[in-house]
Amino acid sequence: MAKRILFATSEVYPLIKTGGLADVSAGLPRALQAAGHEVRVILPAYGDVIDNLEQAYSVGRFKVGDAEVELIETILPGSDVITWLVSNKKAFARSGNPYMNDDGNPWVDNAERFHLFDKAVVELAQGRAGPSWKPDLVHCNDWQTGLIPALLSLEPVRPATVFTIHNLAYQGLFDFETFQQLDLPDVFWHHETLEYFGQMSFMKGGLIYADQLTTVSPGYAEEIQTPEFGCGLDGLLGSRSDSLTGIVNGIDMVEWNPARDKHLVQVYGKLNLKQKLVNKTELCREFALPVDTGMPLIGMVGRLVNQKGIDLVLEELDQIVSIPAQLVILGSGESKYENRLREAVKSHSDRISVYIGYDEGLAHRIEAGADIFLMPSRFEPCGLNQMYSLRYGTIPVVHSIGGLADTVVTATPENIQSGIATGVTFYELDAEEMYAAIRHAVALYKNKAIWKQIQLAAMRQDFSWSKSAAEYSKLYYRAKDDAVMEVG
Ligand code: ADP
Ligand code: GLC
Asked: Which residue's CA lies nearest to atom 21 of ligand 1?
């Protein structure tokens, strides 16, 4: 039976995006709707979102505590999914990054902002905020929505709740004073509720109170139950393992399609793979690198933070360029990494080029133009770029972890022999191991027949959202049963 699902998230592509969560929040609701569910996406009405909306209507005003909230309705571009924006000028009408200011520091009022958003979602979910539409289930994502399951647990009758962990490393931790300012019930200040080593954790609200928990790959679902990857929450997650499911993300097969990609100078597919080379040449030009089509070109796109293992790449740069190989990197993040990359370009200007910033089109052109795509992540809940790479016949070299291990089939002789190899993985998080994996990929690249076979196997993978959406559908029924049991 179809369900009414309220999908709560802090970012949605193309309205606002800082990372993979935005892609998931656009792809999954669309696929759920295509599977017959009735979905509403809800997110805060950030300044930049409101300024860029083409069509939007006010569909209600209501009070959340002392704050006035306006609900704005639009349609998620490129879909028929109704999207609600929770508008409150003080909390959300500011431009820039949704979570931090231009100096890279979290907005000082983040706790109040997302508390307000979460309370607004609860009011809507309970049918107390205007629209007559009431969900059967609220699907929450990451810490910004963690208070929703917690607050709903206080209601005698409520919709079911699912909480998806996209990244356990960001938990939404705030001090006790902030907890008091939010005026949350005392029951939430306890180590078995929201308290986490003397702080308040938004994330724990989701982990403890949601009927069902998911994370974005089976591998990461296992890993977060261990001290190494559990960020101090492994015990709690272990205790909920019966309610924790790993479901690999899908990708938008239309947006990320080398045969139709509007960002490319030359589209290509499995039948005319040679055309991919035009994109390589153009990419070198765009990055002001000398064009040498015989030399492997390695691409990277992502947030320049510890999670992504960029330090390993910095450590091995001299070796990588002397393979020889060229390297193009698109990213932004911590300034120490940005600066070290800028420095590296100075000493290897014919081999390395870096674009510090955010550029959606360039991300597509790197996926298409590079031969090899590098992701040495320390941990990776799912990762989307390796799936984009596979689809573009750009062979991923990845640390075997989380979603990377679940989506890339490593090129052992047996896997090559049986035609299932799609990439190269390394097992120890170590710069030399990563370098050895790159060397392995380059050796394969030199063997044209094998390389093409790996590229074609990669391009045949089906990462469409419909498969993952079917798994979420099953889970929604389980969550509903849990909720019914709880409310008697
Ligand atoms: P995460 O969510 O941890 O950042 P994912 O691999 O799930 O990692 O998703 C990252 C998404 O953000 C991808 O769609 C990727 O292309 C995009 N992205 C990351 N950094 C940039 C950038 N500097 N420019 C353009 N796109 C970027
Ligand atoms: C997080 C993770 C990433 C995942 C994305 C979408 O940001 O770091 O691995 O792909 O969420 O689920």
From this structure: 302
Same domain assignment for residues 338 and 399: yes
Indicate if the pLDDT at residue 99 is higher than 50.
yes
Q: Is 20 in the pocket of ligand 2 (CB under 6 A)?
A: yes
Q: What is the pLDDT of residues 175-194, one digit of tens each?
A: 999 999 999 999 999 999 99
- Domain membership flag for residue 231: yes
Distance from C-alpha of 376 to C-alpha of 216, rounded to nearest angstrom = 18
Q: Please state, in angstroms and rounded to a whole number, the distance separating the CA atoms of residues 205 and 188.
A: 9
The tokens 């006790």 sit on which residue? 176
Which residue's C-alpha comes closest to atom 11 of ligand 2? 166
Supply the CATH number for residue 218's domain: 3.40.50.2000
HSE of 363, CA atoms in CB hemisphere, 13 A: 19
Residue nearest to atom 10 of ligand 2 (CA): 383
Distance, in Å, from the CA atom of 290 to the CA atom of 351, rounded to the nearest integer, reads 8
- Asked if residue 428 belongs to a domain, the reply is yes
**What does pTM read for this prediction?**
0.96
Classify residue 288 as exposed, middle or buried by CB count within 10 Å of its CB (0-12, 13-18, 19+).
exposed
Q: Note whether 105 and 58 are within 8 A (CB).
A: no
